[in-house]
Write a structure and sequence with these properties.
single chain, 456 residues, alpha/beta, Helix Hairpins, 3 domains, two-stranded parallel ribbon, 15 helices, flat
Length: 456
């Protein structure tokens, strides 16, 4: 406990230093632009071309007009950059104040942790937390490392809503072969998907503005509002790396029996291991109990990234064409370094007997009996848009024409039919652009079918 608090305190102090460096870089960029404006303002005065009445040529006037136009454009750019710089600097001041408050709190907690063993009150174990309640899925995204599709980012609130809906669809598509619960013994019920989007807002907005992905900070704010408008989505500004927060949630909620899957996007494995060594495969309790729930998303959809993620031993999947350019310019371990890191960590001294079947260590002390903590998850009700009391067989039959090659089955939702249909083929203006799409284009939808599918 004490060592953990020391690491967190060190992380906060390092964050303070990085904030100061960031503000310093902003001021340097602003000074550079101001110097360019001053130079251009002085240059026309020093070499003012003569007017036509003084023997000058028309080319001289055109050249001067072009210089004035460029000067005005630079002045506008300096003004816009100055406004953004002022806003970000104000936010950086607020964050430094928050960091100081949290650092003071960490110092107090560290002092209490050092005194606790003397009074015979050891810190509680995180692995002893049990949860019960409705099934749910956890999706943890490092938003400072991976971007959603850039065209959606530039749409603000509308793009945020579209991303939230598409994310749910991708996760449910990945889970299409798993039925976790059954309502009334006949129909499968999907768990609720809880999404946490971690990001370093100040640094991320600065990069998005510099690369011209967004035109202003308001566009990013609107995008977050749209994304968080989904009832189970949350955006968290961590003002630093997201991996420690992701690792903390994996340890806190990973053992919950009602947590069925954990999707992790954009997190570097070496930083996860550094933040929490319990995530290494050599930690048998975590690897056996929580490892099967973990799914790493290959956001870049490259073979190299897939190989890196596969060293964890967890399942790796992709969400095709969902994520855009990576913004993660942090140094990262290579494939060989990750393999060496995983293999060099010794196994725990306590042998595990029948870990996969019994999940109990040999001669391990029994956990004290206690009442489980109930986690209340509001279920997401997503019925097909059918009239109340309608015959589902007839309703599904009305969604396709009589000559359609494929028909919808009433036993499954439209997005998880067999074969799965390609929504880009039906709703994207250019249609599906994949040369060999693995989804079906041969559902001949009626106008009613298009309306119902769009609502889904």
């Amino acid at each position: 406990m004490s060592e953990t608090l020391q690491k967190r305190a060190a992380a906060w102090h390092a964050l303070c230093a990085s904030q100061d460096e960031f503000v310093s870089r902003l001021l340097e960029d602003c000074e550079t632009l101001e110097g360019e404006v001053d130079r251009l303002q002085q240059h026309p005065l020093a070499s003012t071309p003569p007017s036509l009445t003084e023997g000058g040529t028309e080319d001289d006037l055109l050249r001067r007009s072009e210089q004035e136009r460029r000067l005005q454009a630079l002045e506008d750019e300096v003004g816009a950059f100055g406004a953004v710089n002022e806003e970000l600097e104000h936010e950086a001041v607020e964050r430094r104040r928050l960091i100081e408050e949290r650092s003071a709190g960490l110092s107090n907690a560290q002092s209490r942790a050092l005194e606790a063993p003397r009074h015979g009150s050891p810190p509680p174990s995180e692995s002893q937390t049990d949860y019960e309640g409705p099934s749910f899925i956890l999706c943890l995204i490092n938003g400072s490392a991976v971007l959603f599709n850039q065209s959606l980012l530039s749409q603000g609130r509308t793009g945020g809503k579209d991303v939230a809906a598409r994310l749910i669809w991708e996760i449910e598509k990945d889970l299409s072969g798993h039925d976790f619960e059954r309502a009334g013994g006949d129909k499968p019920v999907r768990p609720t998907v809880l999404t946490l989007f971690f990001h370093d807002k100040v640094e991320l907005v600065r990069q998005l503005l510099r690369t011209k992905v967004i035109a202003s900070t308001e566009t990013w704010e609107d995008f977050l509002v749209g994304f968080a408008s989904a009832a189970d989505n949350e955006c968290v500004d961590v003002a630093g790396d997201a991996e420690p927060h992701i690792a903390s949630l994996l340890l806190t909620l990973g053992y919950a029996s009602n947590l069925k899957r954990i999707y992790v996007v954009g997190a570097q494995l070496d930083r996860l291991y550094e933040a929490c060594p319990a995530l290494l495969p050599s930690d048998v309790p975590f690897y056996v109990d929580v490892g099967p729930k973990l799914v790493l998303v290959n956001a870049s959809e490259t073979d190299d990234e897939r190989d890196l993620l596969s060293t964890s031993g967890w399942r790796v999947t992709t969400f095709p064409r969902f994520f855009g350019t990576s913004l993660d310019n942090r140094p990262r371990s290579s494939f060989a370094e990750l393999e060496n890191l995983v293999s060099s960590v010794p196994a725990p001294a306590q042998p595990w007997v029948g870990a996969v079947k019994t999940k109990k260590p040999a001669a391990a002390p029994a956990r004290p009996a206690k009442q489980p903590t109930e986690v209340t998850i509001r279920p997401r009700d997503r019925p097909v848009a059918a009239p109340e009391g309608a015959d589902m067989v007839e309703f599904y039959a009305s969604l396709t024409t009589p000559t359609s090659k494929h028909k919808f089955s009433p036993s499954a939702r439209l997005l998880v039919q067999d074969p799965q249909l390609c929504v880009w083929h039906y709703f994207s203006k250019p249609g599906c652009t994949l040369p060999h799409c693995h989804r079906s284009h041969e559902y001949d939808l009626t106008s009613r079918g298009r309306r119902v599918l769009k609502k889904e």
